[in-house]
Amino acid sequence: AKIALKKSLDDSSLTPEEIAAREESQLWIWLLGGALIAALASIFLFRKVKVKQVRVLSSWEIAIQSLLELKKELSLNEELFFVRLTDILRQYIEKRFSLPATEKTSEEFIQQVRGDSILSQKQQIALEGFLSTADLVKFARMAVDLEVREDCLTMADNFVKETIPTAEATP
Q1: CA-CA-CA-CA dihedral for 126, 92, 153, 76, to nearest 10
Q2: Per residue of the chain (171 residues), what is the pLDDT tens digit?
Q3: Can you spell out the DSSP letters for 131-165?
Q4: What CA–CA distances, in Å, run from 17 to 10, 30, 31, 55, 112?
Q5: Which of helix, strand or coil describes residue 33?
Q6: pTM of the prediction?
Q7: Which of 57, 93, 116, 147 is deepest in the core (most CB within 10 A)?
Q8: How far apart are CA 113 and CA 105, in angstroms?
Q9: Element (H or E) spanning 46, and its range?
Q10: What is the DSSP letter of 44?
Q11: Rounded to the nearest 10 degrees, how much is the dihedral formed by the CA atoms of 96, 98, 99, 104?
Q12: Residue 39 pLDDT
């Protein structure tokens, strides 16, 4: 039996076709083994590394979140409070309506909004009053009490909530 086994392992008695067939069958075994190892490794890595899906916030979600954070800072310097408040609202308007709100003065922006039907008449009037008050505080250093700050913050919050697309409106 040892002699037969040794003879079967000896390639010298095989024809070139038999040697090529043996090498081809060994190649398939190696390829299948490699594919199996690669499949197992990818399954292991897929289970080990969990992909985090990050949801991108909408413009109104960002604005509402920013307004909530600003509400905690009502005691800020008046000018700084209104700079932040107008920045939040202008960035929201720019992202939501694709209007260049951050690149224009309040007057230029109000003129543009008046000439467009994106906002209702009520929203245009509220926005104009809000921006006028903010400009007076920021540039004319008009003093305002806490109640005026709260009113402007509420107006900005209402404006954002009123302009959320109806399919995604929040209660």
Answers
A1: -130
A2: 555 545 555 556 767 777 667 677 777 777 788 888 888 888 877 776 666 677 888 999 999 999 999 999 888 888 999 999 999 999 999 999 888 888 888 888 888 888 777 888 888 888 898 899 999 998 988 888 889 999 999 999 999 999 888 875 444
A3: HHHHHHHHHS-----HHHHHHHHHHHHHHHHHTS-
A4: 15, 20, 21, 61, 85
A5: helix
A6: 0.65
A7: 93
A8: 12
A9: helix 16-48
A10: H
A11: 100
A12: 85
The tokens of 90 are what? Answer: 């202008």
Say which DSSP state 77 is in.
Answer: -
Q: Cβ distance 130 to 155 under 8 Å?
A: yes
Buried b vs exposed e over 116-137: b needs ≥16 C-beta within 10 Å?
A: eeebeeeebebbbebbebbbeb
The helix (H) or strand (E) run that includes residue 85 is: helix 78-97
Number of Cβ within 10 Å of residue 144's Cβ equals 16
Question: What type of residue is 127?
Answer: L
Tokens 């010298």 found at: 12
User: Residue 23: helix, strand or coil by DSSP?
Assistant: helix
Rounded distance between C-alpha atoms, residue 22 and residue 19, angstroms: 5
